[in-house]
Design goal:
Layout: E1 3-7, E2 11-14, H1 21-30, E3 35-38, H2 49-60, E4 71-77, H3 84-92, E5 97-100, H4 120-129, E6 132-135, H5 149-164, E7 170-172, H6 178-186, E8 191-195, H7 197-201, H8 205-208, H9 225-236, E9 242-244, H10 253-256, H11 271-281, H12 288-300, E10 308-317, E11 322-323, E12 339-340, E13 348-353
Parallel strand pairs: 2-3, 3-4, 4-5, 5-6, 6-7, 7-8, 8-9
Antiparallel strand pairs: 1-10, 10-13, 11-12
Helix pairs in contact: 3-4
Bound molecules: (4S)-2,6-dioxohexahydropyrimidine-4-carboxylic acid (DOR) and zinc ion (ZN).
Zinc ion binds at residues 13, 15, 39, 247, 249.
């Protein structure tokens, strides 16, 4: 049996949610990642230092017994009311990054940023304190086709942000296009990107051919196969500007399988295994460790993990459904409200965390 031992990876972009959901999402991530960048799009959103530190405490209280070194890295949700003073306060409290959602771009982003240029004093403070800017890079204008929104964001905003703030560390989150990958490659060492398993594994045919597949629906939406191939080539190249960020984003089954289904793929229980399979299929398994365990901490200016994990080449099947914590009755069939359909449900994977 082939095995693969790598430094313990981190997940540089995911959604834990809040409340009881933490009892599901935190153990799932802590099983194989040491750190995780926790997105702030809660209801209400995590808009200041105090809310962020309270959220961190709630995440920590959901870490399973016996896991001693898991570290959530909470983030601030930028709004038009965010001040440079709040950035300084957050930075002093150890918050390493803030998230820019264009208002309306995705789940719980309505309270986010309208008029990105008005945030320039905030970006200035971030550049000064060394706080990272994490960007959901899609425009939201109705007349822009959903498949073109990432490229349009580069042209309308991102080019200016990176040239106006040359020493602001920017992570272009969950990139989905060749345009985004080419853009990041052309920038200085202050610009990097995360890539999800779904955007490496799938293209828009996997969302739309043969019927709508709501569990493959996420934002930014899956693109055509030439973009998927460009992302695959990018990670196989081993460029240190690209690292692991699952965007694992749970929604209850009934909210995905709905007339107006939520965006998000819940991949935490199979995350490292999915990436291992993709890298292996690309003939680039030797590049997995850099992507999963080295380039993220290097870019964030944090130490690499010293521990290791081992993956074994051993077939298993992703479960069809996951029961949420605190399901009331165990002898009835699981209600859709109490269940999550994980990403890649019912499909075989070749690698498994030992
Ligand atoms: O698919 C997504 N789901 N994309 C996002 O940007 C947000 C996330 C969520 O919070 O559900
Ligand atoms: Zn996300």
């Amino acid at each position: 049996m082939r095995t693969l031992t790598i430094h313990t990876p981190d997940d540089w972009h995911l959604h834990f949610r809040d409340g009881d959901m933490l009892l599901e999402t935190v153990p799932a991530t802590a099983r194989c990642f040491r750190r995780a960048i926790a997105m702030p799009n809660l209801v209400p959103p995590v808009t200041n230092t105090q809310l962020a530190l309270e959220y961190k405490a709630r995440i920590l209280s959901a870490v399973p017994e016996g896991v001693t070194n898991f570290e959530p890295l909470v983030t601030l949700y930028l709004t038009n009311d965010t001040t440079p003073e709040e950035i300084e306060k957050a930075s002093n409290a150890g918050i390493v990054a803030s998230k820019l959602y264009p208002a309306g771009a995705t789940t719980n982003s309505d309270a986010a940023v309208k008029g990105i240029k008005s945030l320039y004093p905030v970006f200035e403070a971030m550049q000064k304190t060394g706080m990272l800017l994490l960007i959901h890079g899609e425009v939201t204008e109705n007349h822009i086709d959903i498949f073109d929104r990432e490229k349009a964001f580069i042209d309308a905003y991102l080019n200016d942000i990176v040239s106006d703030f040359p020493e602001l560390k920017v992570v272009f989150e969950h990139i989905t296009t060749k345009d985004a990958s080419d853009f990041v490659k052309a920038q200085s060492s202050f610009v990097a990107a995360t890539i999800t398993p779904q955007h490496l594994l799938l293209n828009r045919n996997d969302l739309l051919v043969g019927g709508v597949k709501p569990h493959n629906y996420c934002l930014p939406v899956l693109k055509r196969n030439i973009h998927q191939q460009a992302l695959q080539e990018t990670v196989a190249s081993g460029s240190p500007k690209f690292f692991l960020g699952t965007d694992s984003a749970p929604h209850e089954k009934h909210k995905k399988e709905s007339a107006c289904g939520c965006a998000g793929c819940y991949s935490a229980w199979s995350a490292i295994e999915l990436y291992a399979q993709i890298f292996d299929d690309l003939g680039a398994i030797d590049k997995l460790e850099g992507f999963a365990s080295h380039y993220g901490p290097d870019f964030y200016g944090l130490p690499r993990n010293q521990t290791t994990i081992t993956l074994e080449e051993k077939e298993w099947t992703v479960p069809d459904v996951i029961a949420l914590p605190n399901v009331k009755s165990s002898n009835q069939s699981l209600a859709d409200e109490d269940a999550i359909v994980p990403f890649f449900a019912g499909q075989p994977l070749r690698w498994k965390l030992a």
